[in-house]
Amino acid sequence: MRQNAEKSGPKKPATMRDVARHAGVSVATVSRALDGSSLVTEETALVVRRAVAKLNFVPNISARTLKYGQSHAIGVIVPDLTNPFFSEFLREFEALASANGQVVLLANAEASVGGALTSVRQLLMRLVDGVVVLPSLDELEPYQLLTLRKVPTVAIDSRRTGPCFSDVSLMHEEGMRQAIGYLKDLGHRKIAFIGGSSGLMISKLRLDAFQASLKMHGITVRHEYVRYGNYRADGGDRELRNLMLLADRPTAVIGVNDLTALGALRAARTLNISVPNEISIVGFDGIELDDLVSPSLTTMSVSRKLIAQSCHGALEEMRVGRNGLGRQLYIPVELIVRQSTGRPLRKMTKSR
Amino acid sequence: MRQNAEKSGPKKPATMRDVARHAGVSVATVSRALDGSSLVTEETALVVRRAVAKLNFVPNISARTLKYGQSHAIGVIVPDLTNPFFSEFLREFEALASANGQVVLLANAEASVGGALTSVRQLLMRLVDGVVVLPSLDELEPYQLLTLRKVPTVAIDSRRTGPCFSDVSLMHEEGMRQAIGYLKDLGHRKIAFIGGSSGLMISKLRLDAFQASLKMHGITVRHEYVRYGNYRADGGDRELRNLMLLADRPTAVIGVNDLTALGALRAARTLNISVPNEISIVGFDGIELDDLVSPSLTTMSVSRKLIAQSCHGALEEMRVGRNGLGRQLYIPVELIVRQSTGRPLRKMTKSR
DNA sequence: CTCTAAAATGTATCCGGTTACATGCAAACT
DNA sequence: AGTTTGCATGTAACCGGATACATTTTAGAG
C-alpha cells in the first residue's frame, strides 16, 4: 500500500468497470456519478470519485464516440501552416474549440496526390463534428463527400453554401475599393497586382476585386501589371523584380496576401528601390509581422478572431439545428495605412 | 435507381454490416476484403469494393480504437501557434505523422488554469499513440500523468528522460559558444541577453548557455545586461529600449528566440540606432522571417525538419518497442551570419 | 464417387461508456 | 399490514470493426 498503490505496471488504463469494482458499485452508478447530474447519493458519488482518483481513471472517448456517432473533434484543413494568416487563425479557432470541449484535428492539404480527399476521408473516419476548410479548394470531390455525410462544413472564401455547408467570406471588394481609392488619392495610376497561383479561388477573388475596383475608379487595367506568385514571400520577391523590368513601371503594387507583399518589399530593398517613394506596396491579411519590417506594411487587415468566431459559430449552428442549409457570412476588411505607401515621385514618365 | 441511389437522406453513415448486406456476404468477409491481405476471392473482393463505393462506406475509427486501445493520433501541445518556430515545426511534424497514417491532435498550453493538465487529459481520453510537448512545461503533473499511462512522450529541451519519455534538445551551448565567439572576434565585449519569462525552461537553458559561453570566452557577465522579455516581438522591443537606457550600453544583444530579436531590431530602428553599427543583434531559431526584415537577422538556426524527425522517430521507437526508457537526442545549432551583426563602432565609451 | 485437406466464408464475441429497463428498498399513505 | 410512490442502484444491450473459432465450399487425391 505504501510504495505501489496498484500492483505492478498499469499496462492497460483503468476502465469504468475497474472503478465500479473498486468502489463496490455497478458501472451504471459510476457513469451517473461522473455525470454528476443525475440521481446518485452524495455518499456513493464520493466513493466513486475516490476510486476514480485512485485508479487514475480517464474515460475512453472512443466508446462514447462509437455510441453517439460524434467525436467532439473538429477537423481543420490548412494549406500551409507556415503562413501566419493560417496559424493565427488556428490559434483563435483552437481556443474556441477547446472552450467548447472540442479538440482540433489538423489535416494538411498540401500532401501530394489527392491530398485534400485523403484528409477528408481521415476526418470522416474519425466522425468529426465539423470541418473547416481554410483554402478554398478547387476540387469539388472533397466537398461532396462531406456534404454526402452531412458533416457540418465551413469554408473560407468559397462563396458557396448548401446543405450543411456554410461560407465565411472576406469582403475583398470592399477592401480593394478602399485600398485603390487610397492609392488613387495619393496620385497613383499605375497599380499592379501580384496574385497567388493563378487557379486558386482566393487569388481569383482578390484579382477580380482588384480589377473591378480599378475600373470603378476609372483606372485602366493593364494586363502586364497582373502577375502570379505563390502566396509566399519568394513569389512576391520574384514578381516584383519582374514588374521592375517593365519599361513603364507601376508606382504601386498590391499583393494577394501579406507574405507576397513582404516578399515584394524585400525585393525592392534589395534592388535599392525606395519604398514608398518609388513604389508603394500594399498587402492583404494583417498578420502580426507587418509591423516588424521596415518600412512597415500597409495592408487590408481582417480580424482572425472574427473569422474564427464566425467559422465556429456557423459549425455549431449547423450541428445543433440540423436544419439543412448553411449560412453565408461576410467579414469586414479594414485598410491599415503604414509606411509602405505614399505619394509617387513626380518624375518624367512616358505619358502612355 | 436513377436519381437516388440511396433512399432518402443517408443520415447515418454506412457501416460494415450495411456493406455486407449489400454485397451479400458477411461482415468478416468485408473486413478481410478491405484488408486486402488475407484470403478472399478476387471476385468477392470486387463485389465488396463495389458495395463500399456505392454506399460511400468509410470505416469508423472509434470502433477500431476501442478494440485496440490505440487511435493513430498524436497529440501536440503547443504554447503559441503564432510563433513561427512552432508552426514551422508543426508543419514538418504533421507531414511525418500523416505519412504514417496518423493525425495530429492540437492541444494548446496557453488555456488559463491547469491548461496543460486539461490538455493532457483530453489527449489521454482519446488514447493518443504519443504526445509531443513543445515548450518544456515547468509543471510536472502533466508529465506524470502521461508516464503513468505509459504514453510515449517526447519533450523539447526538457533535458529529462524516463520510462516512455524521450527528450529532444537543441545544442544551445554549442550555438551560444559559436555566436559569442563570433561576436568576440568582431570586437564585442559588452554583450546583452534578452530572455523569455524568467521561469521557463527554455529561457533558463539559453541564459545558462549564454553566461557559460561568456565566461568561457573570458568576458565578464554583467547582470544589468540580462533582461527578460516574453518570447514575442513586443518583449524584445521593450527590453532593447531598456538596454539602451543604460549609461554603458551593450554593443551586441542576443535574443532568446528570433521573435525577441526581431522586436529588438524594430526598437533599434525606431530609436534610430544603427544596426549593426551601434548594436549587433543575434536571434535563435532560424525562422523564415529572418530573411524578410532589413537588416536581415543573424541567428542560431536549428532545422525544424530535423527536430520533427527526431520527435517522430523517438515516439515511434517507444511505441513499437515498449522497452521502457526513452532517448536523449541532440539537435545541432548553426550560426547563420546575416546583416544584423558587424564590428562595433570604435567610439569613446566609459572604460568601466 | 468418396474422402480429406485446404480455402473461403459465416457466427459470435470483444472492446468501454451509456442508458432503457428491471429491480430493490424505504418512506408514506390507505 | 398492504400498497403505492419514488428514489437509488443493478443488468444487459447497443454502438461498429476485428478476429478466434465454427462452418461451408471447393479441389485434389485415391
TrEMBL record, chains A, B:
Coiled-coil zones: none
SUPFAM superfamilies: lambda repressor-like DNA-binding domains, Periplasmic binding protein-like I
Top-rank taxon, per record: Bacteria
Pfam families xref list: LacI, Peripla_BP_3
GO molecular function: DNA-binding transcription factor activity; transcription cis-regulatory region binding
Entries under InterPro entries matching the protein: HTH_LacI, LacI/GalR-like_sensor, Lambda_DNA-bd_dom_sf, Peripla_BP_I
All copies of domain HTH lacI-type, residue ranges: 14-68
Keyword terms of this UniProt record: DNA-binding, Repressor, Transcription, Transcription regulation
Protein name: LacI family transcriptional regulator
Organism: Tunturiibacter gelidiferens
Lineage: Bacteria, Pseudomonadati, Acidobacteriota, Terriglobia, Terriglobales
